[in-house]
Design brief:
single chain; 384 residues; mainly alpha; 2 domains; two-stranded parallel ribbon; 70% helix
């Protein structure tokens, strides 16, 4: 099937993707503020707030302001992401009709989830709606997978389609978190937000006018090693964010412990259900040290194996600097007893670290091998 979405996006589309990412930063920061202030359950319904698009007094009470403001900004991000995909995908009337069907399917899925969430008393009454929503979501995922595999979409069209589906599922996780009063869905909701932002960073890079020449030229050994290093580091960073989300949703008020190295007065807490909060805190702290070690190792590796000025050295070096800042912010979170501003900037800096690790993975797997190169030969900088 020949598609009309093969054309690379222009500068305007690239700039628009930056606007979407910037708005998403605001959304994630606002979401961090909601969690820090324990305002996630300020309203018991979803997607409306107290049955209204504009609940009375939401500007006057901090929990209402944070939660409803978060929902409003999330709606803006959702529509902006729809615009991102629509402008990359729609080139003719057939594309437009297909997009309308997709939007209708996703809107129906949201409606089914909201309908299930409105039933608070009898779990069996929810099941038909959950089942219908799951089937609808599965069909949409199959559509994306088949389109990604068989249709000749541009990379930016593929990524923006994935972003649109991801932001919809992200909204559903947030809604289910409220209607089912579930900390588990709250954690998934927070982690998906981080992954969504990383995807937007990849879209910005892939739509940049410089993208065609941003392809690291490495020896085979360097390329293989860099792919392993970047993938392991990104996976470790994402795991750390999961642990951080678990800790934030278990430490409802203040922190369960104020030790920087010790946890509950011990180097190693007891790993059992009754000690769950301290165990999560312990894992978050010491997995952070592991991530720091991996980040510094990645920076050292690129400095040793890539020539001075190579942009992959700058990426890993920047990651190491952000990681050191993150550790300091984490220590200040403990010292200040989960200060609002320090905690939220700790979350935001973690977001930047994840985004940078996404970029490292993207370029590591995009890298090519220069013909005729042998192991140990000096790598060429980008553009040469």
């Amino acid at each position: 099937m020949v598609e009309s979405s093969l054309k690379r996006p222009g500068k305007e589309w690239h700039r628009y993707s930056i606007v979407v990412a910037a708005t998403t930063v605001l959304l994630i920061w606002w979401g961090a503020a909601v969690t820090t202030e324990q305002a996630g359950m300020a309203f018991a319904d979803w997607p409306l707030s107290q049955g209204s698009l504009n609940p009375e007094g939401w500007l006057k009470h901090l929990p209402y302001f944070l939660e409803h403001g978060h929902r409003l900004i999330a709606s803006v991000v959702g529509f902006l992401t729809l615009g991102l995909f629509a402008t990359a995908f729609v080139r003719n009337w057939k594309n437009a009709v297909e997009l309308l069907i997709l939007v209708a399917a996703l809107a129906s899925m949201v409606g089914l989830v909201a309908w299930a969430g409105a039933e608070k008393m009898i779990a069996e009454h929810k099941e038909p709606f959950w089942l219908a929503a799951t089937i609808m979501g599965g069909l949409v995922v199959v559509w994306l997978a088949l389109s990604w595999r068989w249709r000749k979409w541009s990379l930016t069209c593929k990524l923006s389609a994935l972003a649109f589906l991801l932001v919809t599922f992200q909204a559903l996780m947030g809604g289910i978190r409220v209607t089912e009063i579930s900390d588990a869905f709250a954690v998934v909701h927070g982690c998906l937000a981080q992954g969504f932002f990383g995807l937007l960073i990849l879209i910005i890079i892939a739509s940049s006018p410089q993208w065609p020449r941003w392809k690291p030229v490495l020896t085979r050994e360097q390329r293989s090693a860099l792919r392993v290093v970047a993938t392991v580091l990104c996976s470790a960073v994402f795991m750390q964010l999961i642990l951080g989300a678990l800790m934030r949703h278990h430490h409802r008020y203040g922190l369960a412990d104020t030790g920087i190295l010790l946890t509950g007065g011990n180097w190693l807490p007891t790993f059992d259900k009754s000690n769950e909060i301290l165990v999560i805190m312990f894992l978050h702290k010491y997995w952070g040290f592991l991530v720091a070690s991996l980040t510094i190792s990645a920076a050292v590796w690129t400095m040793r194996h890539l020539e001075k000025g190579h942009f992959m050295r700058r990426l890993t070096g920047g990651g190491a600097i952000l990681l050191l800042i993150q550790i300091l912010l984490g220590i200040y979170v403990i010292i200040t007893g989960k200060s609002f501003w320090i905690t939220n900037f700790h979350v935001l800096n973690g977001l930047l670290i994840l985004a940078l690790s996404f970029v490292n993975v993207m370029f590591a797997w995009r890298s090519g091998v220069k013909e005729g190169e042998v192991a140990g030969e000096v790598v060429l900088p980008v553009g040469k």
